């Protein structure tokens, strides 16, 4: 069958100043993921590649560009799921790595566990060959401004940097079907600007942020009230 990939870069009210960057970034992510599929890569590898592209782009609230907690730190989370065997991998409270989705994928393939967080996730990532980066290198100028705005005005829950009214729930994700008909979903986020240290959202919780089933479809969400991208199959 012909492979398919869909990505999202967040939902809600996106300020005009950030629309173009998100359009460019999501198109680049689609290309990255689709190239994997065209080379007969798996749906899992495709959604990881697409999400990595957005984690590396400061236009998105994931990876570099993630919003900050009350201590001015990035604390990220991500999840990935295979629709073929319902295997899952997720991480949370990630501070020292640029691409939490890749660690989540490794949890799926190389760990007896489904969800790792904080220091445990860091130890696992290091054991699997991931390299740390300076936490400060993950903090964008816009993320600092968003936290300053929160501390000044108390605009709790604003997750889209630059939003003026309602919050844009800034999570990124991808759903793919490969040439074998296998489904996979990946989701990644920096969470909420001004969140409490140690806050864990819905993204790493399988069935809440991410779900995939070859017999049904796949969905990647952002926040409790948005469904960002989904593929549904009808028998």
From TrEMBL:
GO molecular function: asparaginase activity; beta-aspartyl-peptidase activity
Keyword Lipoprotein: no
GO biological process, one term: L-asparagine catabolic process via L-aspartate
Keywords: Autocatalytic cleavage, Hydrolase, Protease
Record keyword Protease present: yes
GO cellular component entries: cytoplasm
Entry-linked PANTHER family: ISOASPARTYL PEPTIDASE_L-ASPARAGINASE, L-ASPARAGINASE
Name recorded for this polypeptide: Asparaginase
Organism: Diatraea saccharalis (sugarcane borer)
